Amino acid sequence: SLNNVSKHFLKDKKNDMPVKEIFGRYAEGDPVKLGEVAEAFRKHTELLTELFESEERACRDIRKHVAWYFKGYPVGGDFRSALAQVQSLVHMDQIFADLDRDAPPWCTPV
User: Fold this and answer.
1) Residue 17 — φ and ψ, nearest 5°?
2) Which residues contact 44 (CB under 8 A, 6 or more apart)?
């Protein structure tokens, strides 16, 4: 899995939010905001860029994770479609520019 690959190659540089923490925060009434999800998605892409030594390849690879990262957040199909075609980190920042970074998830985690 990508998690195992990143642990192997990046060791202590890995900095993501464990699933237990995400759901724990939701249960405590402090759900992960959309801006935090966007930051984690971008960080994931940065780590892939380092791993692959190619931003283009990292952006192609991260596209398959769009649905998982943003599931349950009010982003809409146009946002998901744009992010599923992301070309670079600059392009990603442009897509993220209009996000409501404080938006909570609209559904209960399963």
Assistant:
1) -95, 120
2) 16, 62, 65, 69
Positions in the chain short of pLDDT 50: 1, 14-15, 109-110
Q: Is the pTM of this model over 0.70?
A: yes
pLDDT, mean over the chain: 82
